[in-house]
Amino acid sequence: MAPITQTLPMTLSPALDFDQKAASELGTSLSSLYVQATPFAHIVIDDFLQDELIASICSHFPVEPTHNETLYERGYKGQRKRQISPNECDPYLKSVFNAFNSAPMLQFLEHLTGIDGLIPDPYFTGGGLHETKSGGYLGVHSDFRLNKKLNIERRLNIIIYLNENWQEAYGGNLELWDPGMKTCLKKVLPVYNRCVIFNTDKDSNHGHPEPLTTPEHITRKSIALYYYTASAGAIDPAQRNKTHYKPRPKDRLSLKYYINKLLKKKN
Questions:
Q1: Which of 97, 193, 222, 265 is least surrounded by CB atoms within 10 angstroms?
Q2: Which residues form the Prolyl 4-hydroxylase alpha subunit Fe(2+) 2OG dioxygenase domain (predicted)?
């Protein structure tokens, strides 16, 4: 399924304004595309944010290190990657992320996915702003299912790409794999203002496993947002609270993959 073009009804003028009714109607209009997508429920939307809004987000993207950010040098589990909490960003970015956690956003997502009772994460565990440098990558994986701090079940991911003038030669495609990890069924280029929304089921296998080939001054930037639901009963203690990385067929034939995995486990 090719990307569609739709813009979230959130604007900057005169301040952040988010139309709940319009957001719900947009979600409903796209729901059949979402639930019927393969290899798992997802949608790719271009021009997702208003032009002024995404330009402002990019201009506020932290260049210097922020307090308590996470750096990944873990090989297949994330290499040359930086994760920045919105709670450590300037007031403008905090206001934007508050809007992503607001009722209109939840209404849009509930009508899009058919998942009721969505809950945002005010701590942005694992989410926020992501940045990967040249040579960096993230192995194919299915996400952690349990937010231990809040004791809620992860259901949805949103990724919004912030990469102006991104060239296909740079790579960085988000890959969507089949449940058996035999075939990559879809690749999504991380171009500017493209949004990917997908269910985080146990076999929602995704990643960008090929090293970036960008010039050193160009990085792969994105917004990552995660949404949850509460359980009517007790949360299954066997529910996975860690990301499950999965080798591709060529990784299973690579001695380098297993050596790197062993070295990372020892560290």
A1: 265
A2: 129-228
Tell how strand 42-46 and strand 4-5 pair up.
Answer: parallel
Contacts for 216 with CB less than 8 Å, ≥ 6 apart? 133, 134
CA pair distance 212, 133, nearest whole angstrom: 7
What residue type is assigned to position 92 of the chain?
A: Y
Residue 98: is it exposed, middle or buried by C-beta count within 10 angstroms (0-12/13-18/19+)? middle
Of 91, 178, 88, 90, the residue nearest 127 (C-alpha): 88
Owning domain of residue 216: 4-265
Helix (H) or strand (E) holding 53: helix 51-60
DSSP label at 234?
P
Tens of pLDDT, residue by residue over 26-56, are 999 999 999 999 999 999 999 999 999 999 9
pTM of the predicted structure, to 2 decimals: 0.92
The pLDDT assigned to 2 comes to 76
Alpha-carbon distance of 58 to 38, in angstroms, equals: 31
Number of domains comprising the chain: 1
Q: Give me the CATH number covering residue 69.
A: 2.60.120.620
What tokens appear for 229 in the block? 């639901």
Short-list 32, 212, 251, 184, CA closest to 261: 251
Q: How many CB atoms lie within 10 A of CB 130?
A: 23
**Residue 157 in 3-state DSSP?**
strand
Q: 3-state class of 55 per DSSP? A: helix
* Kind of pairing between the strands at 42-46 and 152-161: unpaired
For residue 65, CA distances in Å to 5, 32, 61, 71 come to 34, 41, 11, 10
* Cβ atoms of 172 and 220 closer than 8 Å: yes
- Specify burial of residue 267 (Cβ count, 10 A radius: 0-12, 13-18, 19+): exposed
